[in-house]
Amino acid sequence: MKRIFGLLILMLLLSCKSSESQIRSHVEFLSSDDIQGRATGSNGIERSAHYIASKFKDFGVQPYFNTYRDEFIAKGIEAFNVVGFIEGNDPDLKNEFIIIGAHYDHVGTGKSERGKRSSTALDTIANGANDNASGTATVMAIGKHFAQNKTNKRSILLTLFSAEELGLLGSEHLAKRLKKENLDLYTMINFEMTGVPFPDRDYVAFVSGYHLSNMAAKINEYTNSNLIGESVEAKKFDLFKRSDNYPFYEEFGIPCQTISSCDLTNYDYYHHVDDETDKLDYVHMTNLVNQLIPAFEKICNTTTKEIKMN
User: Fold this and answer.
1) Are 173 and 101 in contact (CB under 8 A)?
2) Which of 41, 133, 284, 285 could form a disulfide with 197 if both were Cys (CB 3.0 to 4.6 A apart)?
3) pTM value > 0.85
4) For residue range 161-177, what is the model confidence (pLDDT) as tens digits?
5) Cα–Cα distances in Å, from 282 out to 21, 26, 28, 92, 269?
6) Distance CA 47, CA 96 (A)
7) Taking the CA atoms of the chain, what radius of gyration do you get in angstroms?
8) Which pLDDT score, from 0 to 100, does residue 17 have?
9) Calpha distance 66→70 (Å, rounded)
10) What is the rounded CA–CA span in Å between residue 273 and residue 127?
11) Is the dihedral of CA 7, 295, 80, 243 positive or negative?
């Protein structure tokens, strides 16, 4: 009996953890050369959206709208976000929502540069492994956990945005649409460039707009760790306003912030053809996801909205 009980506990623990191979496979698909850099309106982003939606379906994540796609026009280009829904399991709290988001588009192809593969070959594909296949894979891993374990009292929207690189247009569109629908949004947590670790910080990732809310303090409390800190560089470059959290903050006026482990001091390939899969640290990515899951469990399940604006 003890052995059976032990096996059940082990199975439960394993079901709560994301695997390195799963996260790596998402990044490798989204940032492969075949996807051509995921520019908004391209065949590559069409294939990326299909991939994300098919994985959502496999995980048991439902579409929030009639389909997974939230369509809009971005500077004359037909574009679409991918939006999944995990209903909360509490009859009252399920009417409150948490958004977990990231942009899945990138800049596509551009001028030829000498990439890592050859001293003579020229590369034109900005694969966007760290920016932002890493954040997309993070959202998918957290979404899979909740879809399969069904431990969230509050409802969750998984939002993968297009046209971020064109000026946060996908998140702006969705934020306005959800505000018009009077969504009861508790908080929006966005992921941006989570693929590499900081070599010299006493925290694992930073949250943009650190002093605007108690989000970092609450995540650290929920995980009993110093997981989230403040980046001086993020504040210097006002990264709070430069990612997909910002349109939600503007519309809803609540804690809507971005978690990242890269403020460009620890990565040399921003919008570069060498932002490829072999540059990322998948152990770091997996550990970050697995450390964050207990925090998201608490965010989904506290009786009151504990994350508040300062």
Assistant:
1) no
2) 284
3) yes
4) 999 999 999 999 999 99
5) 8, 11, 11, 38, 17
6) 32
7) 19
8) 73
9) 9
10) 6
11) negative
Number of neighbouring beta carbons within 10 Å of residue 158: 27
How far is 31 from 87, CA to CA, in rounded Å? 30
Q: What is the pLDDT of residue 122?
A: 80
**What are the φ and ψ backbone dihedral angles of 259, each rounded to 5 degrees?**
-105, 130
Gap between the Cα atoms of 30 and 130, Å rounded: 11
In this structure, how many other beta carbons lie within 10 angstroms of the beta carbon of residue 208?
A: 27
- Token pair recorded at residue 56: 């959502």
Cis peptide before 132 (omega within 30 of 0): yes
The answer as to CATH 3.40.630.10 being correct for domain 17-301 is: yes
From residue 154, alpha-carbon distances to 74, 206, 285 in Å are 31, 25, 25
The predicted model gives 154-160 an average pLDDT of 99
pLDDT of residue 9: 42
pLDDT digits (tens, 9 = 90+) for 48-92: 999 999 999 999 999 999 999 999 999 999 999 999 999 999 999
Q: Which residue bears the tokens 């540059």?
A: 279
